[in-house]
Amino acid sequence: MSNDSNFVVGVCTRTQGPSAFVEVRAQSIEGAITDISASSHNLFGRSGEIEVRAVRPALKPGDWVLARPTLEGPPKRQRYVAASGKRLVPFEDLSGLYAPEAARRLLVETGRQDGFAGDKIFRISASDMIEVRMAVSSDGRSRIVDPKDLRSLPLWSYQADAHIRVPTSTGHLDLLAKDAAASQSGVVNWSTDADFLAQVIQSLASERAEDGALNQVATLLSGHVARLENSLSEAERLDPRVGQEIMRSRRLADVMKSRDDLLRDFMNVLRSDPEVRAQLTARIEELATEAAQARSETLVQERTAALEADLKERRAGGEAEIAATLRELEAAELASMTARLKTAEEAALAGISAKKAEVETEVELLAERSAQIEAQNAAEGARLAETQLLLRTLDAELASRKDEIDRIVRIESLLHARGNAPAERARIPGIRPVNDAKPIAIGELAAWVEASKLLSAAGKHLCVRALTDLLSGSLPVLSGSEVDDFVALLAAAVGGGRHVSFDCDPTVITFDDLWVRPAGGAPTALGEAVTECVGQGVVRVCVLRNIDRSAAHLWVETLADKLRSGVIPENMLICLTFAEPPSEALAEALKRLPSIHTSGAMEKAGVIAALARSSADRLERRIEMSTIEPASGPAAAEAAGKLLVKDVQIGFADVDWFARLVTVASALLKKDAEDFILAAARRRAAAEKGGAPSNGKPGLRVIESGGASNA
User: How many CA atoms within 13 Å lie on the side-chain side of 128?
Assistant: First the structure.
């Protein structure tokens, strides 16, 4: 619809953001407007609506709109959309009246009988029009309600090409597309006669303040007319609006001058005025109608009350009769039903008595049989329980003996192989001479870890906690996919880059087997390491690998206790690893030890940084054990007091270990030291509740078949 004469006209049904949806009512093609309200759904989709994206001024539901829509969207989802639209206002031409004053009296004073309410444009002369809002007054006539102040009613220039006549099913509807950018052509005073008279009197009040009598109103009006005529002569041109005010003022002045005594003739003049007479007649008719309506309402209420009372009385009588009849029927029916029920009850009781005797006999027989069956079931159940218990005992004994036999066979094989070994003792791999790594104090260790490029952010936190466990005499358990790298980094931090690796096997049954090999009596890697720690004072980081392959549940708690009590030198730092998930007994023992999961601890690109460093930039450090001094008495007492507040108690046997723990945790963990100390103390308390540590030697029992003792 690119041609200006092609457009559609419709009513806004809803709005959504800046867009409005319009139901099409009429269509103009080449200037010919036709009513399509019954067929718009065939032309513009199932709903007969189009979308208008920009309308000035903004629309609200119920407004008429002119738009030129076009099809938009993909082929199967096209719809009609108009980029812009114009708001149309209902229009009526009153320029055919004899003067604009007639239009004012019709729209302001008398009112219209069409009952129209809403915005509307009226043409009041050949070149002027007004836009007002109409509303229905209490007398049923439509009058102007907006703008409130009609003393300066805006005038707009009439544009014939903006006038559109739309055909509808009830006739033609006149609409006007007012230009939002149009400028105001002037103003006109359309106030009511009473307001106009008040304006005249108020404008001359300063000049006539001494004249208070009502008969001076005519003189004031005459003076106002003279002033208007003077302003008109000064303008030297005829202004229709000034002329209109002159006519209104002159008419009011003439009426007032014709009355010699305003107070005496006021009522006579009102009665002689046809308009007043018509108003009085209308008022009398209105009062008569109201009186008749009030009387009719009173009569209706009286008759209604009388009818309701009569109906209530008749209803009460009818209800009493119905109630009496129902009582008689109920009594007769009850007597008949009682007789029938009594007869049926007697017959039923006779049948029930016979059945009861038969059932009682059957019940006695069944009770005897049930007692016999229950006794048999109890005996069979007892025998079955004994059999099942015996089977479970045998299964457990069989599994236990099989495990013991397998362990003894492996031990015998290992001892036989070691017995055939050469007599000379070779140096055990895993122990290297002491190197010349730089010493590091306990206070510098946290900074060394933080500066490491081999650890991730999470790995640095784990490394500091692991070092705290090692240096405080605890026995940490390491797990995860990066255990080997993590152990190497721990050794680089405190052991000069060297660590002792001890692989556990089934021959490691007792605590003594960690240090001296069975049968041969030769020291293990741990035995040589402890000798160096005691004799040379060097720091050794020791890793007990694959503890799940040995009887670790028999000695792991003993090892942890020896580390805490200082039996094992404090410069011998020991940690544990396992290859497979531990057994139930070992898992229970490991719960009382600190656990560190190393997966994700190492930086992925850390090896590049390690390879790129120069030979002079040595990474390895050797901890100076002399820098680890037990905490002072007040500091340790304060830490123990905080534990007591949280219901955790430190035993007298652990005083030295606790003082060392406080020192190391405070130096390495800083603000996290308190939580670390609390967790370590709780693990220690749990270990004490589980029982005192053993001596690391298994209990022995005799195998019934006469074999060796089973560990």
Answer: 16
